Amino acid sequence: MISRIIKNNLKRLYFSLKYSVVIKSSANVSSGSVFEGQSVIYQGCNILDSFIGLGTYVAPYSRLQRTKVGRFCSIGQNIQTFIGRHPVNKFVSTHPAFFSLQEQSGFTFVQTEQFDEHLYIDEEKKFVVEIGNDVWIGNNVMIMDGVKIGDGAIIGAGSIVTKDIAPYSVNVGIPAKKTRDRFDEKYINFLLNFKWWNKSFKWLEENAERFINIEQLYNEYKDSRP
Predict the structure, then answer these.
(1) pLDDT at 2 over 70
(2) What is the set of domains in the chain, with CATH numbers?
(3) Selected catalytic residue, list 11, 86, 126, 195
(4) Per-residue pLDDT tens over the stretch 166-180
(5) Active-site residue flag, 86
(6) Which pTM was predicted?
(7) Are 91 and 99 in contact (CB under 8 A)?
(8) Cβ atoms within 10 A of the Cβ of 64, count?
């Protein structure tokens, strides 16, 4: 027990020094995870083999595994990724002993993997979920494997996300469905091209007041390039 506490404290110190990341007590971050910095991982979280973008925070008791998260995201409490799946068609049984080598029940009947238990978003099979930049995800959301959430999107609390989410859309429900766009099309296209999340911290500080009104930011920077 003591050695595990020491190990966790050393890991928190490592991420703090290397990435400027605050990892709260009882949070677990695997050594395979990567941070861009200026993030907070709150208590009870599990961040496993994931990428967390600049300025993103993860609220308590969320579990992100093999998840790529963009910059300046607000990830609510009890978010879950890396859900996995079982065969529905053709296979006689949904029990993993008939298709998996993972021995989830302590045994397996097969010699080779017979079914892809996870859907990956990349050819390297590194991530199962991609969350864009400036995404807000409410509490108690489940995101299924293979899903990509676009920049600026909002996912309402309690939703189950089963398919890709359009940029700057608001989505709620089981399964999550689009209810509206956050902005007019011209503003969405502007923001996707402008990519403010790639600006420096100094630029963001100097222009923070312009973020209060999309029309003001649009009028002042619509002719600029990323």
Answers:
(1) no
(2) 1-84+119-182 (2.160.10.10), 86-116 (no CATH), 184-226 (no CATH)
(3) 86
(4) 999 999 999 999 999
(5) yes
(6) 0.91
(7) yes
(8) 27
